[in-house]
Amino acid sequence: MAQVLPESVPRSTPDGIVQETLPSRQFPGIPLFILVFLLVLPGLFAPYLAPHNPIRGSLRARLQPPVWVQGGTITHPLGTDKVGRDILSRIIYGARISLAVSLVAILVSGVIGTALGLMAGYFGGRLDALIMRLVDISLGLPVILLALVFVAAIGASFITVVVVTTVLLWARYARQVRGETLSIRERDFIARARVAGASHFRIMLRYIFPNVINTLTVLATLQIGAVILLESALSFLGAGIPRPTPTWGSMIADGRDLIVVAWWIAMFPGLAIMLTVLSLNLLGDWLRDRLDPKLRNI
Amino acid sequence: MTRHIGDVILQVDDLHTYCFTRWGVVKAVDGVSFALRQGETLGIVGESGCGKSMTALSLLRLVPRPVARIVQGRVLLQGENLLDKSEREMRHIRGRRLSMILQDPQTSLNPVFTIGNQLLEAIHIHHKGSPRTLLSRAINALSQVRVAAPERRVEDYPHQMSGGMKQRVVGAIALSCEPHVIIADEPTTSLDVTIQAQYLRLLREIQEETGLSIIFITHDFGIVAKMCDRVMVMYAGRVVESGPVRDIFNHPAHPYTQALLQSVPTMEERPERLYAIEGQPPALWELPPGCRFTARCPYAEARCEQTYPSSFAVGVDHTADCWRLQEA
Amino acid sequence: MSETPLLQVHHLKKHFPVTRGLLAMKTIGWVKAVDDISFSVPQGETLALVGESGCGKTTTAKLILRLEEPTDGEILIDGQPVHDLRGNALKAYRTAVQAVFQDPWSSLNPRMRVRQIVAEPLVINRKMSRAAVAARVQEVLDSVGLRPQQANLYPHEFSGGQRQRIAVASALISQPKLIILDEPVSALDVSIRAQIMNLLVDLQQAYHVSYVLIAHHLATTRYMAHEVAVMYLGKIVERARTEALFTEPLHPYTRALFSAALPGHPDITREEIILPGEVPSPINPPSGCRFHTRCPVAQSQCAEIEPEETDIAPGHMVACHLYN
Amino acid sequence: MQRYIIIRLLQSLLALWVMSLIVFGLARVTGDPIDALLPIEATLEERETIRRNWGLDKPLHTQYLVFLSKAVRGDFGNSWKWQGHTAMGLVLARLPATLELAGVAIAISIVLALPLGVLAAVKKDTLFDSVGKMVALLGQSLPAFWLGIILMWIFAVMLGWLPTSGRGGISRLILPAVSLGWFQVAVIMRLVRSAMLDVLDSEFVKLTRVKGLSEWKVIWKHCLRNAAIVPLTYFAINAGVLMTGSVVIENVFVWPGTGRLALEAIQARDFQVVQAIVIIFATVFLFANLIVDILYAYLDPRIRYQ
């Protein structure tokens, strides 16, 4: 980490001052590694990777500690829960839910939020006021509570979780994209495009959208972490994907009451969440440094 | 002009300020020397990135750290080397003996405090006194820069003022503790022409009243012609020519100065064609060993590429760094 | 000068409403950005609009470019009212009128390659084969002094001067009749400005294109323009052929501008006219002659009666009571 | 200024109204609202009573108007689970506990995050900054409920320093408040840091240094006031996050607040109580926003003199 020279890029601006960017971070190798082996691979290939059936346990093997603790066996490296289910296998299957929920939610909310944000920022006026009001309202919703209400009314399901997260997330995209669009709209290349006769649609698609992609990438990366946290909280409260499907949040809920006698039940799924989200945050930070147009030579 | 020009008040010897970046060492200021006399106006002219602003910040020891560092040189203000001072001592010098007017009035005032607050703060650092006397000093400073109804203006926030008015306030802050030397870093570039004329006249009047020395940083030879006694032309971190303003305009010696003067259209006549300097200034992190203007110079020879020319005298107090002058 | 000028502007007005209110927006005043101006530009000539910020020169440019709708008055290109154009006529107009903006750092889309940027006006408005477009791109890049290989680069790989050349190339590609130059050199380094000014003058001679030059720097207009119109608070106060204006500026505001312009040599001393105060707000501008609040020679009638545009000499218009 | 607050107030009311629509709608999205409104074991008689009380035999818009007119008066009907209590009464009785928890969490996050963020920006690229950044990143990556469980395990179970759950006294407040505020500390610290970096770069800071102002005053007077605006904006958004975060944390620590009430009510399908909670949460959130808006105007004269 110790470096004699500050790692930074000189940038000649029109006013000629050499500006310095933030020191660029190292390539996030470890975070990417964690993501692949904790989220992506298990999420895609859980049935091939998991040593045991995640749903059915054997009562004889209940409350076994991890392998390095006295009484633990290599059969269940991370131990078992109170009905004898293998923690490791459940974590591997749990990754599926985290991956699926976050990808679907990010995609849906990203598309909706970006489209609305582009329109709000580009057209301005009443449309902008309307969309931004909706954004404010959506950001002000007590999401977890609303999710609980949803679950009470409709019942817990994958769809419920995705709908609830989308309701929260689209607004963040819309807000961010609108802000960027507002500033891009004032730049002269938009005026040039209008002079050249480009339609509104073409301007949004060819001129504004490519200039917000970087921001969207960064935001999406950071939001995946937020979705995983939200999903786990819902599962923890019993408002997520219904049992017996293993999710990281519901595993922690299982372990809560047993924390005194079997700390590993709550510990490992929590660590899985933490490491995944931490990796996503590190990756997002790195992407921000790399991609954010403000820090690059334009 | 009825100004009295006195002894040397500020002398800069062989100043080097480098920026240490990933792309290499940016030699923003690379061996700058000059002297400023009391009551005199010295112009520093150059294009963006030539090091003129970095020179100014180096004098105040306010270069952006940790990236930039003053690596060598002396800055003698009334005989004391500022580069030897502690940060604490520097704070007593800034504003009180050496001050600066920044370029952009829109951003150089803090939007959340009243201008009275910001002005009083400047005065309070260097003067003790009852709130009442300090306030009257602040009001005086505002009237010195011809702000109408200064008693009421002290209550205003920056956003309630026009650009020209804000720049006057910035001037009042810089002048409020009666500094001996003031650095004006392109103070009029963002102002309209008629407002610029007001501001330039104001600076000249204040100089006549107080005997202030001014370093005027600009990219515009017109401002030099109007305001300065002596001028120093910078290119890529070095001073390529310096001398009395009339000498420079009448007999520019360095090819860069010559080209700059010819490339600017004037009010007085319309040339058939403007002289255009081809190419652009070199990147400061990959400077050639020789003269930095070589690539754009119509007279470039082999030796220009290899060794940086020494300074040659071309008149009284008038020097230029160009090999062509060696023979003359 | 018997044929109809390329661009005609008749009694053009643009007023922006100032609104206030919680739910129902109420108009409480009007910003008279452009208030009844007229001028014309013949084919192959340059008209400069000069004035300080807020004088309406940029709004005028936007009106000509159809980026704003006029409140009143009309703009004619080749005798056709610009703001009535629809369909194919509009497409033809979009190729006939182009623009170069002030800031080369913001006027090129950072996510498009140079060849895409330059080709855009053709791609949008004309049906041409890819090969024909590519050939035309090479042609204009060459005419602005850029190398063909540079077409595949992105804007951030260029310096300010080169970027402005790209912007000029893009404006030229559709063989326009008129290019609006909005402060084309003021954001550039001093040593680069002459390159671009020379280029623009050369291109005008080569292609017989007309320019409307927006500028605040008088010396630039002297070099580039055939005719100069001086604007103050939404009005044209004086308009004349360049030589005539620079030999004998008549309007007190023009004179003040001339006096404020920086000299080219320390020995040049001009009559010093320092105008008091600042440009008043264009919301509810001063009555009578708008300049009377700062005018050194204002008389009593100036505050009440608006001066008429009067031709003092052929082609030299001035709006001031001194010359009535 | 007045105008600005009035606009904000109107917007808040609008948001509240939308919220009422959602709450009303949710109970009716799935066929017969009675199914959603009442637990499965409710008797036919009870169903009929509710149907009549809520006017469910009338058209939808009439139903909504009835709901709204009652809601405006704070009447969400009687609780199903806690017989003999009104829904609103139950919620209001539990609200102080939640506000106490959220308030302490906010206090912790501000007291820690503001100075840490400022120092991280001032000491940019030093060890302090790196450690600060790591702590902040970690804070944003921990699920609050898990942190709560682990803290409880360490400090209450293993070390026995603090009680595990319940309300009463400062000792019982520490663990839940830290768990709830942890995420906020991380976020606010990062925001303050980046806002400070922007401000430190600005021209007016340069001018204060030219004046000869001490670095301490430059940072704590000039920079902080400008930089505070950014995290404040975030804070408005996250007042809601804190409120909902309390649902999770209260259940971990068996804290007798509205969050716990919410979960109990939902599990018992006590929709009257749920509706009251949602509306109360929204009101608290909007009220917090309003306060932030007023603070905003205090910090930034450009808004004050609009």
Cα shape of chain B: globular
CATH superfamily of chain B: P-loop containing nucleotide triphosphate hydrolases
Provide the domain count of chain B.
1
The global form of chain A is: elongated
Secondary-structure element order of chain A, as H and E?
EEHHHHHHHHH
Q: Rg of chain B to the nearest angstrom?
A: 21 Å
What is the alpha-carbon Rg of chain A in Å?
23 Å
Helical proportion of chain A, percent range: 55-70%
Distance between the termini of chain B: 34 Å
Structural class of chain B: alpha/beta
- As residue ranges, the low-confidence spans of chain B are none
The strand count of chain B comes to 12
Protein traits:
heterotetramer, A: 298 residues, mainly alpha, two-stranded antiparallel sheet, 9 helices, 2 strands, B: 328 residues, alpha/beta, Rossmann fold, eight-stranded mixed sheet, 11 helices
Description:
Chain A is an all-alpha fold and about 300 residues long. Chain A is about 65% helix and about 0% strand. Chain C has an 8-stranded mixed β-sheet with strand order 6-7-8-3-9-10-12-11, with helices on both faces. Chain C has about 325 residues and is an alpha/beta fold. At the B-D interface, α2, α3 and α6 of B face α9 and α10 of D.
What's a concise summary of this model?
Chain A is mainly alpha-helical.
Which helices and strands occur, and which strands form pairs?
The complex is a heterotetramer of chains A (about 300), B (about 325), C (about 325) and D (about 300).
Chain B (H helix, E strand, L loop, with lengths): L7 E14 L2 E14 L3 E5 L6 H8 L8 E10 L2 E2 L5 H7 L4 E4 L13 H12 L4 H14 L5 H4 L9 H13 L5 E5 L7 H18 L2 E6 L2 H7 L2 E6 L2 E7 H6 L4 H9 L38 H5 L4 E5 L2 E4 L7
Parallel strand pairs in B: 3-8, 3-9, 6-7, 7-8
Antiparallel strand pairs in B: 1-2, 1-4, 4-5, 9-10, 10-12, 11-12
Helix pairs in contact in B: 3-4, 3-6, 4-6
Chain C lengths: L6 E14 L5 E16 L4 E5 L6 H8 L7 E6 L2 E2 L5 H10 E4 L13 H12 L4 H14 L16 H13 L5 E5 L7 H18 L2 E6 L2 H7 L2 E6 L2 E7 H6 L4 H9 L49 E4 L2 E3 L6
Parallel strand pairs in C: 3-8, 3-9, 6-7, 7-8
Antiparallel strand pairs in C: 1-2, 1-4, 4-5, 9-10, 10-12, 11-12
Chain D lengths: L1 H25 L6 H5 L6 H10 L6 H13 L14 H36 L4 H15 L2 H15 L10 H32 L2 H9 L3 H13 L1 H24 L5 H10 L3 H29 L1 H4 L2
